[in-house]
Fold this sequence. Notes:
Arc Repressor Mutant, subunit A, 114 residues, 12% strand, 5 helices, three-stranded antiparallel beta sheet, alpha+beta
Amino acid sequence: MMEMSIKNFNVHKLFLKALSNETRLLVLESLRNRPKYVNEISQDVGFEQSRISHSLKCLCNCGFVEVKRKGKKRIYSLNKETIIPLFDTIDKHIGRYGQRLVTCETLADVNAID
């Protein structure tokens, strides 16, 4: 078994914590289609722009999202090198094991199916 240092373990926890926040995850999901301005993301997810901006600040700082200036506005996109492939892998896993996730008693408090 490969040993993981406490430092690496804690960084892994932070990475997964970034993904476990509903607003941040919805922002990432919104950006899967194409790069967007903050107001477009806000409309997609149905939250106030200030809440989206707060999440984008974290996601940019942590390398999940990239930002480019277009005039006075900023356009946000997923990190193509790491986050897009990660979501592709997650989709593949869900395709194969999604039903197990939905029926997992440990995760029962999460509403996976509306």
